[in-house]
Specification:
Layout lengths: L1 E4 L2 H10 L10 E6 L5 E8 L5 E8 L7 H14 L4 E7 L3 H10 L2 E6 L10 E7 L39
Parallel strand pairs: 4-5
Antiparallel strand pairs: 1-2, 2-3, 3-4, 5-7, 6-7
Length: 168
């Protein structure tokens, strides 16, 4: 299993699963692949605002989350970007994702009604503060990154995330 950073295929797949628009210069991704190049799942970071960043998670295999993915999903925003808060938007109808986020330590901040059509049409705004993140105490695991020739590189270093909507 290997980790790919900013792999275009993973960004598109996760963005589609999360129902968000793909913006190459603004979205950054950490994805887990099998040795045969099958995408297992990953996290996509959007809407970096200095103090916060949005996180979108999508799994395409029931066993996509491992210690490496948990470590990277929380180390990157809190320790590298130095944000205070992670923000997740979860459709009310996606009970499985909502419960998974609660287990990870996210908290409900608000439920916006009538965002989607249907019976459960709301959207949960969930968040996690750095000081509440229990995953930051994990020791750094061995991380096997995919070689460059097996990555759809978009030439954007992960640490150079562009700030969206910054005040001048």
């Amino acid at each position: 299993m290997t980790i790919r950073i900013d792999d275009v295929h993973a960004i598109r797949a996760i963005a589609t699963a999360a129902h968000i628009q793909f913006v190459p210069k603004l979205h950054h991704c950490i994805a887990r692949y099998t040795d045969t190049d099958r995408l297992l799942g990953g996290v996509l970071f959007t809407e970096y605002r200095g103090g916060s960043v949005a996180i979108h998670m999508a799994g395409f295999d029931p066993h996509w989350v491992n210690r490496v993915m948990i470590y990277l999903a929380f180390d990157y925003p809190f320790n590298q970007l130095k944000v205070k808060k992670l923000i997740g938007l979860v459709p009310e109808s996606n009970v499985r994702a909502h419960n998974a986020n609660l287990k990870l330590g996210f908290k409900d901040e608000h439920l916006i009604k009538d965002v989607y059509n249907g019976l459960m049409s709301g959207m949960h705004i969930m968040s996690m503060l750095k000081e509440e993140c229990r995953w930051l105490d994990l020791p750094m695991p061995f991380i096997e990154y995919a070689p460059p020739e097996r990555t759809n590189d978009i030439n954007l270093p992960l640490a150079n995330m562009t700030t969206v909507g910054a005040m001048q």
